[in-house]
Amino acid sequence: MTDLLAIAAHPDDIELYVSGSLMRTADLGGSFAICDLTRGERGTRGSAETRGKETEEANKIMGIDASRRCNLEIPDGDIRLNEENRGRLVQAIRHFRPRILIFPSVSDRHPDHENAHRLVREAWFTAGLSAVETEYQGRPQEPYRPDIQLTFCHVWEFEPDMIVDISDQFERKLATIAAYSSQFTIPSVNTNSDTNCSQEPETLISGENFMEYLIARMRRWGFIIGARYGEGFQKLDSPIKINDLRDLL
Ligand SMILES: [Zn+2]
User: Fold this and answer.
1) Residue 29 alpha carbon to ligand 1 centre in Å
2) Residue 99 backbone dihedrals phi, psi, to 5 degrees
3) Dihedral angle of Cα 102, 107, 42, 71, to the nearest 10 degrees
4) What is the pLDDT of residue 192?
5) Which end of the chain has a smaller Cβ tally under 10 Å, C or N?
């Protein structure tokens, strides 16, 4: 059982968009796990091996070990809605048994992000069906469906339903992003020039322009809730059950 399971298409998506909220939950005594769908091997910059090492570095900063982060090794750029992929994700959901599932929003410029949304939606439902049997390390798994589904956005923005104050986690969040030195340039963080693949082609999200935008977005969302920095989420579908309206306070 874990409080949060965050699922994303590529290693580094979690760091960019939700790592502040994950670390905040952990800082407040909760738990989280991460599931990356692909190894990001089709990325313009870096290789799957490089990104694997960068993920290990980011995990250290977030305070989790390899047992709390899985990679389903679905081909990058080819996240299909099929039985095999859905089955792997059902296994991961039943293994971690999260109370809250966090995954990509329904629309984005990158098809992998949209396909990840649909795959997680199907796996979320399927994971709760007792007729669908799965095993993990040779042992049968119990059906399990998380109560709450939250989505995060990538480049195509949404207006969040809720914003988490990540001011205390902001610097560590930047460090998790900087761990992916093959992918990003962060103006305010010194990256290791030995590992920084600055000679590689620029992408939409590799340069300072993107990072300044991302920081501005966190700053804007933070301002709205009276904090310095924030991460936004949308809830999916049905209303969230609240036992007492004071839970909102
Ligand atoms: Zn991505």
Assistant:
1) 28
2) -80, -35
3) 20
4) 46
5) C
> Can you name the residues that pair with 103 across neighbouring β-strands?
151
Instruction: Please check whether residue 20 is in contact with residue 229, taking contact to mean a CB–CB distance below 8 angstroms.
Output: yes
Å from CA of 130 to ligand 1 middle: 32
Find the 74 Cα to ligand 1 centroid distance in Å.
13
The residues spanned by each domain of the chain are 2-248
**What is the whole-number distance in angstroms between the Cα of residue 83 and the centre of ligand 1?**
22
Distance 192 CA to ligand 1 centre (A): 23
Question: Rounded to the nearest 10 degrees, what angle do helices 170-178 and 19-27 cross at?
Answer: 130
How does pLDDT run across 207-229, given as a tens digit for each residue?
Answer: 778 899 999 999 999 999 999 99
- Residue 10 CA to ligand 1 center (angstroms) comes to 5
* Residues comprising the chain, all counted: 249
Distance (angstroms) between ligand 1 centre and the Cα of 146 equals: 23
Q: Which residues pair with 230 in a beta bridge?
A: 165
CA–centroid distance, residue 107 to ligand 1 (Å): 12
Structure tokens at 24: 């905040």
Task: Provide the terminal-to-terminal Cα distance of the chain, rounded to the nearest Å.
Answer: 26
Please tell me the distance between residue 241's alpha carbon and the centre of ligand 1 in angstroms: 31
pLDDT (average), residues 185-189: 66
User: Which CATH class, in words, describes the domain spanning 2-248?
Assistant: alpha beta
| Residue 135, beta-bridge partner list | 140
What mean pLDDT is reported for the chain?
Answer: 91
